[in-house]
Amino acid sequence: MGLLEAILGGFIINFLGVNARYHFLKIFNKNLKKEDLKNDQEDIGASFSQGFYNFFIGLLVFCIVSIGLMYIAYRLNLL
Q1: What is the Cα–Cα distance from 61 to 4, expressed in whole angstroms?
Q2: Whole-angstrom Cα distance, residue 63 to residue 17?
Q3: Any residues with CB less than 8 A from the CB of 1 and at least 6 apart, and which?
Q4: pLDDT tens sequence across 10-63
Q5: Minimal CA–CA distance to 67: which of 59, 77, 10, 57?
């Protein structure tokens, strides 16, 4: 279970969460970099908050994409 958890956690947090936040916040701040949104900062509070936001947004995007794929599969009578 540890490997699956690490893969999905890394995918949800480090890929979906960071990229979704980056593309949304890039609309408002043109000077934003992806490194600003990752939790590699030395400040413990900032590191925790960035990781929490990345996880929450990544989980939300993962759920929306999963529901969308299931809906498409249902409409194409694949389920």
Answers
A1: 19
A2: 12
A3: none
A4: 888 889 999 999 999 999 998 988 888 887 667 777 778 888 898 899 999 999
A5: 59
Q: Per-residue pLDDT for 1 more than 70?
A: no
Whole-number CA gyration radius for the chain: 15
Output the DSSP codes for 24-72. Answer: HHTTT-TT--GGGTSS--S-HHHHHHHHHHHHHHHHHHHHHHHHHHHHH
Distance of CA 74 to the CA centre of its chain: 25
Q: What is the maximum span of the chain, computed from C-alpha positions, in angstroms?
A: 50
Cα–Cα distance measured from residue 12 to residue 62, given in angstroms and rounded to the nearest whole number:
7
Helix (H) or strand (E) holding 20: helix 18-25
Residues 62-73 have a mean pLDDT of 96
